[in-house]
Fold these 3 entries.
Entry 1:
Amino acid sequence: MDKDTEQKVARLQLIEQNMQNFAMQKQQFQAQIFDIDAAMEELKDSEESYKIIGNIMVKAKKEMLEKELKEKKDMFELRIKAIEKQENQLKDKSKELQKEVLDNIKE
């Protein structure tokens, strides 16, 4: 294998590592969204609401909590979209590099 092909294979490996990192980040954000959805569902039926700040729990206005949770959820959804965009760019680059490597090997 020539040096150019070796470099492309190394870049492919790096892309694969980045894809795995993105998958883990996305999974963490999706878990956060799941927790937020569960909290929002609980808030619907509760008359009193509390918020955890550090190591203490304080009473909070339901409307404020709902607003904060919605904002957090929106932020995580935006982060997921950004990760998905980066994933797609990496997939495209990976396909391109794979084709080049295969073409070089065939020659």
Note: The first helix runs from residue 3 to 45.
Entry 2:
Amino acid sequence: MIDSIDRKIMAILQKNARIPNTEIAKQVGMAPSGVLERLRKLEHNGIIEGYTTRLNALGLDFGLLAFVFVRTDDMIGEIKAAKLLGEIPEVLEVHHVAGEDCFLLKVRASNTIHFSEVLREKIGRVKSVRSTRSTIVLETVKETTALPIDETLSPVKGEKTNER
């Protein structure tokens, strides 16, 4: 069960995963041990999947961002190709999609030459890949992994409320 305190804790962590438990405790009005217990429960239940560091892609020479639609010869619902595509280091995300294409990839490369090599020598070498369509991003206006957690939203599945 996730309550409004858990939501507050998760919202705080999404802004800064390195914040000390004592500071979270102050912000939610709890003892640090209570916050730690809630964090462990959220981790155990798979709600908190991990803690990451965001790196500056441009500063690390991965300034080109592209989305690639991939069609494969795989049977409907089969994801062998997706697993192989997911092993390519430049492929950051693999999504199984509905529509004419089978998968949507989020790809980072240093430049168009590097991107071309990824398409030709890595994605194109997956045997079941039939075709690709690419869109190169010119400018990113918003990019986040944060979910819109708000303690005033309706209850999460299984949460008890005070409503009658």
Note: Confidence is low (pLDDT under 50) at residues 159-164.
Entry 3:
Amino acid sequence: MQPTRRSILAAFISAATLPVTRSHPAGAQARLVLEPTPECGKGGEPTMAQTEGPYFKPDAPFKRDLAVDAPNGERITLAGFVLDVGCQPIPKALVQLWHADETGAYDNAGFRLRGYQLADDTGRWWFSTIVPARYPGRTRHYHIKVQKPGGRIITTQLYFPDDPLNRRDGLFDPRLLMRITDTAGDRFGRFDFVV
């Protein structure tokens, strides 16, 4: 039986340390597997920066559920941790997300599919949103800004594994691939930011 997005998110939220990254069937129940993030603890390198692109807008609303902005889009939950270079969680880190809609358009007049939140006390963050469409010259991607309290802002982008346009997108970098789990009805994407 395939796990649901809700069951994976519930396991992620209740995890004491690093969250769910994949699931394996075990009879009628799914056994959840925890996996350490590969980005921290190996030389102290923070998540790589990338351009914010031309569609960034300041003053995004405090909002976790962006999926309500695009009810016809394919739903996905994006989640992860904000960690320091020693793999310790960073509570109250700011995580801001913006991306194209299901047609490849950005809302430049308002704040549709734009929002920010603060990581919880264990560094966890998550958004409910949709899978963005590709648009000319770009593979599917999300724009993200992450800032630890009092720290510098890291601006980057996240990508889908195995997207056929990844190789043709001049900004694509495999170090920014999300880990995707298909669930019953939608998807769950995981990425841990190191700041």
Note: Residues 4-10, 16-37 have pLDDT under 50 and may be disordered.
